[in-house]
Design a protein that fits this description.
Elements (H helix, E strand, L loop, with lengths): L2 E10 L2 E6 L4 E8 L6 E13 L2 E8 L11 E4 L3 E6 L5 E13 L2 E10 L8 E3 L1 H4 L3 E3 L14 E7 L1
Parallel strand pairs: 1-11, 3-10, 4-9
Antiparallel strand pairs: 1-12, 2-3, 4-5, 4-10, 5-6, 7-8, 8-9
Length: about 160
């Protein structure tokens, strides 16, 4: 009997701490949300502008009351508009950008929708689109990446 490793997944808790180096944001609390399809990041002052005749998105990540807020304004030429159904059931158009997240000491590409989340406790939600192929969620745990605990689950197939 031969055993093959089909895939490996890392166990992630209900919350963790991640870096978004391209955005110059470090130690940001992220909430793992298997109910959300897309990942989202709290921004404010989100607006479309024209630069040299090309449409861009301008925004500030987090908000002035957040301890990691650094007043840095970002401008993205590459973005998409996405139709998102929010947790309260409302459908809205959101801006989506591609960037990188560092979690478990590894960089991953991530698509983030930008939204005003001022009422929310956590500035970042990581949704199923990002989580599903990489992580298994253990809701009884938190900060596994931040605390340096790497737990891998291996699915094996007998042949």
């Amino acid at each position: 009997m031969q055993i093959k490793v089909k895939f490996k997944k890392i166990v992630i808790g209900r919350k963790d701490i991640a870096n978004f180096e391209i955005l110059d944001l470090f130690g940001i609390v992220v909430k793992i949300d298997s109910g959300a399809y897309t990942s989202s990041f709290h921004c404010h002052k989100i607006e479309k502008i024209k630069k040299d005749g090309v449409e861009h998105i301008k925004c500030n990540f987090l908000d002035p009351t957040h301890s990691k807020y650094h007043e840095k304004e970002f401008c993205f030429e590459k973005f998409k508009m996405r139709t998102i159904k929010s947790s309260n059931g409302l459908v809205e158009e959101r801006v989506s950008i591609n960037t990188e997240i560092t979690i478990f000491q590894k960089k991953y590409p991530i698509e983030l929708t930008l939204t005003e989340r001022i009422e929310m406790k956590h500035p970042v939600l990581l949704g199923r689109k990002f989580i599903s192929k990489r992580f298994l969620i253990d809701t009884s745990r938190k900060n596994l990446s931040f605390n340096g605990k790497l737990i891998e689950i291996r699915k094996i197939q007998k042949t």
